[in-house]
Amino acid sequence: MILTKQYRCIHSTSCQCTKGHLSEDVVFLVFQQLNWNPKMIATLSCVCKWFDDLAKRVLWKEFCRTRAPKMMLDLQSSGSHSVDGNWRALGKLLIYCSGCKKGGLFNSIQIPGHFVYRTRFSRTSGKSFLLPQCRTDVLYVSDPCEHLDQGEEGDVGFFRGVFKSFSTSKVRQMLIKRGAKLHPTEVCPYCKAKLWSMLQAKMIPQSASCRLVAYEDCVEYYVCLNGHVLGICTLLPLSDSEEASEFE
User: Fold this and answer.
1) Strand pairing partners for 194?
2) What is the pTM of this model?
3) Nearest to 84, CA basis, from 181, 172, 159
4) Domain of life, per the record (predicted)?
5) Are strands 139-142 and 214-224 parallel, antiparallel or unpaired?
6) Distance between CA 248 and CA 37 in Å, rounded?
7) How open is the CA angle 111-114-120, to the nearest 5 degrees?
């Protein structure tokens, strides 16, 4: 293939890419052959601002569509060509468990964040995390990422999720109506937006612990201004799981 045109980086005068770039179409085809490998996309984003912009607009979008096609189709079915936050943030949410640090959102324990090979997100499960009056909202929630034998904390599970059209959701309206305060220091690990505590707003239903197979008083989660959800729970021992499922 003979490439006759290149595109110069116009985002930064200090950019190392003094000889210009390949066209977006060529980069698209290369990453299509790589099956939208997230590590390769992240590496490309570090080259310069031109590649970073391309990754945000195109590559992360295609990664999300490939990784969770039905979920992405639903999230965009309201007519928007984008998603709340950005595609890079959503891509990270699909494959990254944020963990927690002492003094952070869940300040009693420290577990490093890490990438996960595969996670199931469920719209049906999301209903269990909403109060009855908010269940017309659409929320996708992951299965908990299990971190077992965490000392006094027991078996810890982290879960994450995303709302569809959060800016017009009933959950957001209720948070505002109840005067919920944004966290003073911590931000969303996926998009850096401010966070509301659903626990402080008293908006976590009992059905959430049943869905997670967790202790009822040990479920906590936050939602950011872009509708990303991150939470923690203490999982029931395996011997108690069957008993918990009877309440679901």
Assistant:
1) 187
2) 0.85
3) 172
4) Eukaryota
5) unpaired
6) 38
7) 110
pLDDT of residue 14: 61
Angle, helices 87-95 vs 38-45, to 10°: value is: 140
**Paired residues of 182 in beta bridges:** 196
Helix (H) or strand (E) holding 114: strand 114-115
Compute mean pLDDT per 10 residues along the chain, 248 residues long, and list them: 47 60 85 93 87 90 94 80 75 93 79 88 95 96 88 86 94 96 93 95 94 90 96 82 48
Please tell me the predicted confidence (pLDDT) of residue 247. Answer: 44
For residues 208 and 216, what is the distance between their CA atoms, to the nearest angstrom?
Answer: 8
Q: Do 99 and 107 contact (CB within 8 A), yes or no?
A: no
The per-residue pLDDT for 58 is 92
Residue with tokens 């060509």: 81
Q: Which residues contact 38 (CB under 8 A, 6 or more apart)?
A: 63, 91, 95
Q: Phi then psi for 171, rounded to 5 degrees?
A: -60, -45
Q: Is 133 exposed, middle or buried (0-12, 13-18, 19+ CB in 10 A)?
A: exposed
Q: What is the domain partition of the chain in residue ranges?
A: 24-77, 102-235
Q: In sequence order, which residues have a C-beta less than 8 Å from that of residue 185 and are 6 or more positions away?
A: none
Spatial separation of the C-alpha atoms in residues 219 and 104, rounded to whole Å:
16
